[in-house]
Write a structure and sequence with these properties.
Largest sheet: 18 strands, antiparallel, barrel
Oligomer: single chain
Helix content: under 10%
Structural class: mainly beta
Strand content: over 45%
Distance between the termini: 37 Å
Radius of gyration: 22 Å
Number of strands: 22
Number of helices: 5
Length: 461
């Protein structure tokens, strides 16, 4: 695709001026109270109550605005432009032509504190350019309310009601969908409870279904999420309940109710770091007047070691994931694991496959090229966990049905990223990747190497 190739050439020559979001934290300043977050409501700017501290940086007067005794307002904004470019998307299928488009969004917010009460509001303005054949609601939602809730701080218990983004653990099952243009939000109730060193989130929410027009985002009537997530030092334990009245897995269609039990062990010891998570799902899948049981599972591992004393401070990481698939589409048991609401960048910046019926190995190395410039190189190989099930994208849509293929190997991917924290507020990012098809893709349809290029500019304060 000429347009993609020209963009890739341009990116190669401008490599020193580009990079991926969240690859490098902004330099810490004395005036900065918290670290900037994706959800924004976790930032506590009360440390800037002192006018002297607010004067240390131009954003200080926006982060803490005193209104009266024990009443103050915090404000901020994110302005993001992201270009994504695909050649032979979904291995050259006629339904997924070459594509090159731009996403634009603005996320201002206001956070009002009145004693122990709080009101948080974050509108969204999101649009797209050149999405083919036509943009969907995740590409652009016009003007709408992304987050809006009220909160009461009752000491060890914080109660919150309204619309908010959710980020649990490493977002394997519940994430913000921050990468796509319109993030994911939920409507409902949340209670955060502190029990000793544990922080427990109790949830009863429904996902928000964005619309293409302004002020037309609606609470989903088909999906619901509830449960408890306990985060402790080095260990997370959780239960998540999920219902979808219009689920679809291959040829199976119907309502499903799932219960997920999971645990995550994560730690850092010296230069070593690791993150190991496992989850099991059970429940019922109903089809018409019949139905059957659900039994699915996943195990994800990540082990890494940093070498801070070597040139470029390399950090080596090896990830391995196994996610169950369905082993007999003709029986009543469903074995495909449901990742529920996973993060948008699950296997890297850009990838055509998602965390369903898959096994993969994913070595990566991170490099610190300069104090504000980082880079990364990663490779990945993917196999089907079950030969009777197909492969899916990150939202859970079937990309390739199992057909008659007995091959497990899906393909291999390489990715390079570069990140520059130009200022405390501005970061620029780039990713270049290619996915070469394996035996399963060759058995079931068109087989071309997918080329992907992502460019991003993100201004936040």
């Amino acid at each position: 695709m000429p347009r993609l190739c020209s963009l890739a050439s341009l990116a190669a020559t401008a490599v020193g001026a580009l990079l991926p979001h969240a690859a490098l934290a902004a330099p810490k300043e004395a005036w900065e109270a918290p670290t900037l977050t994706i959800t924004r409501y976790d930032e506590d700017w009360s440390d800037l109550e002192s006018a002297e501290k607010r004067d240390h940086h131009w954003t200080g007067p926006f982060k803490y605005i005193p209104l009266a005794d024990d009443i103050w307002l915090s404000t901020g904004i994110e302005l993001r432009a992201r270009s994504e470019n695909y050649e032979n998307n979904l291995w050259g299928s006629a339904d997924a032509p070459n594509d090159s488009y731009v996403w634009l969004r603005a996320l201002p917010y206001a956070d009002l504190h009145v004693g122990k009460l709080r009101a948080f509001a974050q509108p969204i303005l999101a649009t797209s350019v050149s999405v083919a054949p036509s943009p969907g609601p995740v590409d652009g939602t016009g003007v709408d309310l992304l987050q809006g809730f009220v909160e009461a701080d009752l000491g060890p218990v914080t109660l919150r009601a309204g619309r908010q983004m959710l980020s649990l653990g490493t977002e394997r099952l519940v994430g913000t969908r921050y990468g796509p243009n319109v993030p994911l939000a939920f409507d409902g109730l949340r209670a955060n409870v502190t029990v000793g060193t544990a922080k427990v989130s109790l949830l009863a929410v429904r996902p928000v279904q964005p619309g293409k027009g302004s002020f037309d985002d609606r609470t989903s009537s088909r999906k619901a999420l509830w449960g408890a997530y306990a985060a402790m030092p080095e260990l997370d334990l959780y239960y998540l309940g999920y219902r979808n009245d219009a689920a679809r897995w291959g040829e199976r269609q119907g309502g499903e109710t799932r219960h997920t039990l999971g645990a995550r062990w994560h730690a850092k010891r010296g230069d070593w770091h690791w993150n190991v998570e496992g989850a099991y799902q059970f429940g019922r899948f109903a089809k018409g007047s019949g139905g059957g049981s659900i039994s699915a599972w996943t195990v994800g591992t990540e082990f890494g070691r940093a070498f801070p004393d070597l040139p470029l401070s390399p950090d080596l990481t090896l990830r391995a994931n196994v996610v169950s698939g369905d082993h007999d589409p003709a029986d009543t048991r469903l074995g495909t694991f449901n990742a529920l609401f996973p993060k948008g960048k699950y296997f890297g910046e850009l990838s055509p496959v998602g965390p369903y019926n898959i096994m993969n190995l994913h070595p990566a190395i991170g490099l610190q090229l300069a104090p504000t410039v980082s880079a990364g190189v990663a490779a990945a190989a993917y196999w089907r966990q079950s030969r009777q099930d197909g492969i899916y994208d990150i939202p859970g849509n079937l990309v390739r049905a199992a057909g008659d293929s007995r091959a497990r190997f899906i393909g291999k991917e390489v990715e390079a990223t570069l990140a520059w924290q130009a200022t405390a507020e501005l970061e620029l990012s780039m990713s270049v990747s290619a996915f070469a098809p394996g035996a399963f893709i060759r058995d079931t349809g068109t087989t071309k190497t997918i080329h992907m290029l992502g460019l991003e500019s993100n201004f936040r304060f």
